[in-house]
Amino acid sequence: MPLVVQKYGGSSLADADRIRHVARRVAAERDAGSSLVVVVSAMGDTTDHLIELARQITRDPDPREMDRLLVTGEYQSSALVAMALHTLGVPAVSLTGAQAGIRTDGSHGRARIANVDPARIVREIGAGNVVIVAGFQGSTADTYAAGEVTTLGRGGSDTTAVALAARLRADRCEIFTDVEGIFTADPRVVPEARLLPVIGYEEMLELAHQGAQVMQVRAVELGWVNDVEIAVRSTFSDHPGTRIKEDPDVEQRNKVRGLATDRNVAKVTVVAVPDRPGIARTLFVPLADAGINVDVIVQNVSHDGTTDVSFTVPRSELARARRLLEPVVGEMGARELTADESVAKVSIVGAGIQNAPGYAARMFGTLADEGINIEMISTSEVRITCMINEADLQRAARALHRAFQLERPEPEVAAAR
Length: 417
Ligand code: ASP
Ligand code: MG
Known about the structure:
This protein has helices spanning 16-31, 46-57, 63-87, 119-126, 157-167, 201-209, 217-226, 279-289, 318-332, 359-369, 393-403, 412-416; strands at residues 3-8, 35-40, 92-95, 102-104, 113-116, 130-134, 137-140, 149-151, 172-177, 198-199, 230-234, 242-244, 258-262, 266-274, 297-299, 306-313, 336-340, 343-349, 376-380, 383-389. It has twelve helices and 20 strands. The chain is globular, with a radius of gyration of 23 Å. The chain folds into two domains: 3-178, Acetylglutamate kinase-like (Carbamate kinase), CATH 3.40.1160.10; 248-417, VC0802-like (2-Layer Sandwich), CATH 3.30.2130. The chain is 35% helix and 24% strand. The longest helix has 25 residues, at 63-87. The chain is of the alpha/beta class. The strands form four sheets. The chain has an eight-stranded mixed sheet, sandwiched between helices. The structure holds aspartic acid (ASP) and magnesium ion (MG).
């Protein structure tokens, strides 16, 4: 019997009707002869509501208690999906992340999976059950307090699903969501965006990093490392969606595969920093320790022994970053810290960018033709990112989508594989 791991996101489980719909999908897959492990997110906006509830109690919740609160969202949905399957006559059992053998380190709120002990899941499958696993969570194994529940960070159910698919050597790993797959751009920003039948791991990783919100970054990473092919599909249609996999046809494809847009950006500038060794460390270590992702970093040319350092952080983390940095900025003798929240990032991504010159020039030229000012630039081997004014984001994205001909369908040979 083929083993299939399916993951259903929060919007696919938002109410009783949708839970019943998911149960019917799972039952159909089982009738087709598969064994199933089904990973679920919390219903709808449950996680957001729980976070908001905690915030009404305290500005600074204890991370351990926060995890104990957040795991309950996925407890609910997993039990309800199991019940819905029972009403269809399908034997099913729901498990917490800990019961499913997901062992993590002890970093509450952003725990990393240390290993997966599949014994219980394997037993349940052997007994004929569909196994419903509460996503986004695990428990600690070898610290002084074994068995503490942890969460894997927002969107972590994707990571649960890919980790289980890897460990169980599943025949398929399917991420069900409320969109049909991965598009060349966010269709809400670029209406011309086109569904990609296939995308490589590295490209998907860059898109996810740069703001494509369909898949959690870590889940893509985990899939890549373990060579798990991941299908991203819609819960509400039979469309095959997008396959994330090593892509042998990369040479025949459009060199730019997609673009990402991200409004969750703020630019921080530390003005008139004394130009001496150790300054960058003093600024960035506190941010790293707090788990705040710093992106584009620019240090200007030094005048009179001082320099300006600018970088971006997620806008949602700006307040925290400010609180951490303001004392540091004073101590190091910099003049001030300023922040700009009216910025956004647009990125082009494609494995073909790395060995073909001219992509940066074409990107900058396209933005120039639109009269859009570029404030900062960053690149990787397969990505070019420009930071621009947020008000220009949609115009920039549509112009780039046209300039790189992303609306053109895939070549036949590639699509057929
Ligand atoms: N419920 C969690 C969240 O909203 C995990 C997930 O949906 O994957 O972030
Ligand atoms: Mg989610």
